[in-house]
Amino acid sequence: MSRVGAVIAPARQRMDALRQTRLAVTLRDGPAWVRYLLVLIMLAFFYALPYMTIPLLNTPGSNFATVLFFPVGVYVLCGIGLDLSVGRAGIVNFGFAGFFAIGAYAMAYLSTKHGMSYYAVLPIAALMGGFAALVMGLATLRLRGDYLAIVTLAFGLIVVTVINNSSALGGIQGISGVPHPGPLLGLSFGTFDAAPYDALLLTIIVLTILVTRQLFSSRVGRAWAAIREDEDVAEVMGVPTFRFKVAALVIGGMIGGLAGATYGAQAIFVSPDTFDALLSVVFVSAVVLGGAGNLVGVIVGSAVIAYLPERFRGFEDLRVLIFSAVLTLMMIARPQGLIPRRRAGTRKRGPRAPAHDEPPTAGQRAGLIPVAESATLSESEAL
Amino acid sequence: MSALYHQFAAFTFSGLTEGVLYALMAFGYTIVYRILGLFNFAHGGVFMVGTFAALFAGRSIGAHAGAGVAGAIGAVVVMAAAAIVTCTLVSVALEYSVYRPIRVRTGGGLAALVAGLGMIAVLQEIMAKWQGRDQVSSAQPVSSGSLFKLLGGAVHPTQIVVVVVGLVVLFAAQRYVNVSRLGRALRAVGQDAKTASLMGINVERVVVLSFALAGATAGIAAVLQNLQFGSTWYYGGFSLGIKGLTAALLGGMGSVPGAIAGGIVLGLTESYGGAILGAEWQDVIAFGALILILVVRPTGIIGERMALVRA
Asked: Scanning every residue of chain A, which has its alpha carbon at the shortest distance from the alpha carbon of B285?
């Protein structure tokens, strides 16, 4: 076992002990209304969060409600969209910022040049994000899996370069003066108070979760899981893998479009340097850090990735350095993510099987033969 | 269009120069991919550190143009030595401290890609903190003026140095991989790590060797970059790294001749395409060419070597 593993093992035992407590068992196996009540309480908490003052949680350098909108809420929505391809269907995607950019520019362009309202542009932005994903998917998804890492990265760079060089989209200057959404259900959206936007975005996130959860438990979700585990076997078993992989990208792209459009309407101003390659990388890191393929993990990971740099504003110069160093360390310490994916039907009730403590062979130490081959299922998922 | 027609030779020379730099970077990606099936995204960062090592070496010996041919060669050798040693060390350190722990725990995968991208940002930010975020000018022992005209296009001494040194290094590396004992071990592990290990090959050492080779060629690329452009900056590794990876994919991942061909094709495509559409579209042309070629021929121009083994 590696040294890092030796540090993590006791923590894992404590987690397992926690899972056996009465409260945890009631929540997991108890009556459904307990779970619904818990979800409702959590929702109420999140809707109230922008109005609350919590000493340690609030961000000293910037407005807390604004931080909750961007980056936290936007990252969470993008994380959920990206996870459809990365975590569910197992497609590496380093171009998600492209979909996000397309949504934001759809909102900025259509509202400033054609006077359309936020609510009218929203579905168009989603469709445009989805269409971009369709084009990308049709062009690239027949390639071998790991090639997608660079091809999708290239796609994101193409989107930014096109925006940079297009005078209709404002070039490097971007588009300013994007109108705010009109009032909705007694909420009015202004420039200074971000709290109404938080409620709007949270609602979009909740609706997205409801829709995607339906997908996961349907034929689509099972097809994605089959593709992720073994694409060849899935194809042989009659799953039209190409179509389902494109679908994962397209639905993710639509979610990215929604996130971008809402971001554009709140930020008033969109410019290409917001959507550089680093943003795509940050989205993927958020998903991988939280635990690809696990909805709660993805939400937690995205929120953490978005929130931490805001919390520690003040060391402007060192922010990116600290952020990337911590990210790399997290990947080394826990490559499967904070809350790894569970496989349907393999929920462990008892304590985990003890990890074997044999000294690794030369091949294992070099990492060419993964140690995890004989470990528990959820650990061996290397994505 | 007419710009391309009238200055075809000049665009060819500059495309070829850029292409050799891409090919050197592509070699580093391809050799690590061949062993581990891993895209070493931090490779651009290794290169960037090398450009600064060459810069400091050039400064400390007071390298300048006009010291005669012998002086120029001496200065380039010193700068190259500094860059090669630095890049090799950084590359091997990356393998030990980042990639190996991740591989041992999960067998690689997405976490390794994200960690590699994290490390390129770490290297860049450390350099930015130390040397600032502006271009830093480097010593230029080789004159950058025009030397003579060939087919109507001016040829610069720096271009000759880049192309000649780059191609010699690449062909030497290709021969090393194909002929030498360690090169044979390298190919064996690339084909089947388990069997190679049973045949008495020290797999760990071969993995380190692949990172060392990648680092050394990145060091050469770093020196040549400094000679060609006369300056470097903390962000200089990212785009060249991505282009190098693009070149490796174009030629066929895992194949050394593929890296050379992919680099030169990419450099020329960018140069000609930029002449037609304008230099600001070069990135779109490069990535568009990548996607187009992969759609038509998914294994790249020369063809990937390991498709049968890794699948």
From this structure: A158
